[in-house]
Amino acid sequence: MLERLEETGLSEAMLPDRLHLPEEAQTQLCKLIHAHKRSYPAGTVLKLEGDDTGSVFLVLSGWLLASKTLADGQRQIVDIILSGGILEPTSATPGVSALEVETLTDMSVAAIPRSRWHDACDQFRDLAELDHQISDAAMSRMAERMTRLGKAAAETVITYALCELCLRSTAHGLVEGMTFHIPMTQQQLGDFCGLSAVHICRTLRRLERNEVLSVTDHMDIVVHDLDTMAAIAEIDIDTLRQEIIPVA
């Protein structure tokens, strides 16, 4: 496989770790990435809500935000797409973005034309299945988060968000005593949780006082009491992992 990719000037290193495909589908995906890969610094707006859009964004590295903004300027982060994730921001009106798309960190992304992406999925069943798995996982995590946004206390919303982001962003998963990093400000975490930055700060301090977790410089999170954190978040860790992380 590696030799055949090198013959075309491509490399398996182009693929995020979690994207595993049979040989022909993987070669086709590498070609698409090679043709449409771009790098952006943190804070770059790739699409505004209502912009023309004809791309499927495949995240190669870094964190990508998808959000909606009200007329008064209040923002809700709808989803965070990590390495190996796919975002197709088009609305029911073809070619119009339903979301604002912004880089949260320095990142690499392949903005693949929708027509080329869909043609590749039609040609390679394994690529189409991967696309479905990633979309299903995104729907599952958004449904879990939305349920808590509408019905649960702030502590539950925040601890759920931290659990989700840890499970998705670290290879070791959610482990007691392990440090994981959230590259977000408290304001951004608030936009993700539907809460103010002040509410985020107060809740994190309360969780620290109760020795559930601690927050060090720039949102480094250490979980001290995993059972309590899972109980507050109202999750079973293994079940949530299975529901929100696509099968490799």
Give the secondary structure arrangement, pairings included:
Elements: H1 2-7, H2 23-36, E1 37-40, E2 45-47, E3 55-61, E4 64-69, E5 75-81, E6 86-87, E7 100-103, E8 107-113, H3 114-123, H4 125-151, H5 154-169, E9 179-181, H6 186-193, H7 197-209, E10 213-216, E11 220-223, H8 226-233, H9 237-244
Antiparallel strand pairs: 1-8, 2-7, 3-6, 3-8, 4-5, 4-7, 9-11, 10-11
Helix pairs in contact: 3-4, 4-5, 5-6, 5-8, 5-9, 6-7
Q: Radius of gyration, Cα only, in angstroms? A: 19 Å
Cα distance spanning the termini: 18 Å
Low-confidence stretches: none
Number of helices: 9
SSE order in H/E notation?
HHEEEEEEEEHHHEHHEEHH
The protein's oligomeric status is: single chain
| CA-based shape | globular
Going across the major beta sheet, what is the strand order? 1-8-3-6
Tally of strands: 11
Main sheet summary: 4 strands, antiparallel
- Share of helix, binned: 40-55%
